[in-house]
Amino acid sequence: MSAALFLTILIGVALLAPILSPNDYTTIDLRARLQAPVWMEGGNWDHLLGSDNLGRDVLSRLIYSIRLSLLVAFVGTIIGAVLGTTLGFVAAHFRGWVDDIVMVAVDFQASLPFFIIALTLLAFFGNSMMLFIILMGIYGWERYARITRGLTLSALTHGYAVSVKTLGANPKRVYLRHILPNISSTLIVNMTLNFPATIIMETSLSFLGIGIQPPMTSLGNMLGFGRDYLTTAWWITVFPGITIFLATLSMSILGDWVRDRLDPTLK
Amino acid sequence: MSSQYVIQKLFRALLTIWIIVTFVFVVLRLSGDSVLMIFGPDVDAGAMETLRAEWGLDKPIWQQYLVYIGNVFQGDLGKSYLDGRAAFVVVMERLPKTLSLMGVTAIFTFLIGIPAGIYSALHHNTRTDRVTMTLSVMGLSIPNFFLGVLLILLFSVAWQILPSAGSETVWHYIMPVLTMATAEASVFARFTRSAMLEVLNQPYIRTALAKGVPWKEVVRQHALPNAAIPTVTIAGFFVGSLVVGGVVTENVFAWPGVGRLLVSAVANRDLAVVQTAVLLISFSMVTTNLIVDFAYGWLDPRVRDLRAQSREG
Predict the structure, then answer these.
(1) ipTM of the complex in this document
(2) Which CATH number is B95-256 given?
(3) Does A122 contact B at CB distance below 8 Å?
(4) What is the mean pLDDT of each run of 10 residues along chain A (267 residues)?
(5) Whole-prediction pTM value?
(6) Which residue of A has its CA nearest to B242?
(7) Structural domain boundaries of chain B?
(8) Looking at the complex, does the CB of residue B100 fall below 8 Å from at least one CB of chain A?
């Protein structure tokens, strides 16, 4: 319950970021550098959660970071799901060499940690927001493809798919209207696993300075920059860190719950 | 293990390596003119042509590809832009530090994760089980860069008892290993627990109990060996996650290993070093998966005796 509540709050914060954030998240105020949170000595109400090394408001940055991190993870998850599911259908429909090519791509991606693939591509092509979001989308597509292909191949032999085909429905209709709803619960379970993994991937890359670039801010890149001020201003790193931790924890708990309800193999 | 099984797995491994090398080559060529990228547009055109010829960039693309593959298998992966040394040497001299960190982490992962999982399974649905599983969900959810930073805040900043950067003494190992082993041990605890639970529900366990074998013997003789088999399959995943965890953790604790080198090479776009590190990681991953496949084939009699069965059938 608290997991769902926390996620709802996070999504609310992400949606209402411009209204909720007390200050502009990019405003630099060098006279108020490294100010402590309001309950500590040296803190005041201007910066509830303190300020960073350039005097920017940590709370406002946190709110905008939540917005961007959730957005990237959300768009990434959707791209991965659509891409993977489509390729899974294509592989199952055409079989033969098309199937072989898709499966070789699946095996290739599964053989290397995606983190390493992402690092390589960011190194070779340079960092841009566009490439970064595409990478987050490519992350995890292979699992959707494998699931969709396997389930579709077995669904195609089931009575309902055979009868719809015999009735003359075109392939698009068979796959999207009939097979997709039947395999969607397994795909949704995979999505709940993929979403927190994408958040960790994004925040890790941003933490290392090769993900989201300033002036934009994400939970990972806040932590990465705040790391240099650990001895003087722990609040820059600890608040975004706790947020990431609680977000992934809530999603794991919620994901387990969804799996117990939806996964047909557990019933 | 049938020879067909071995050949099939070997072929797949070689295919994967070939695809990875080709992938790196394609990306390298797509990423732009490397001569231009190093020297900028101001360099004399004649000098750039000479360099292109020297590096073989004026030849047709398929010739460049063949030369590239030949070079990769001779360990010639270009020079680091930063100091002009061979990229292979630059990466290799960082390897021991990374391997020692991974090795120590692996030992602690096994020592904590596997017993915790077995204990949880044997005390299924008790409070200990629930506490262990809650801890493992938390261990899985905390990103290792945040755990690392928290440990530094506590042990280096607040209490000042552990060094926060470097790798010289035993003390330097404590925080990085703790950071990496937390997530890994959580995975192992969960996996071992579910493997054990699965095995404990099998009919042969009931049979053994029914014929009067004491519980301890059943666990030692029947449950543990059978639960160990599926645990082998996550070894491939384990090495992958050690590599990724290592890259992040090495950067948090300024550990002078391959992971730290890789990230700074990515930031500086030192492509020769990046590709060397990536190929090294790929080869180790493919080799690990191959070993896992063979180990699985050898441990699981159903896979091991496939040929015998097919001959009889």
Answers:
(1) 0.85
(2) 1.10.3720.10
(3) yes
(4) 84 83 78 75 75 81 90 92 93 88 85 87 83 90 90 83 79 82 85 88 90 85 85 86 91 84 64
(5) 0.86
(6) A113
(7) 3-92, 95-256
(8) no
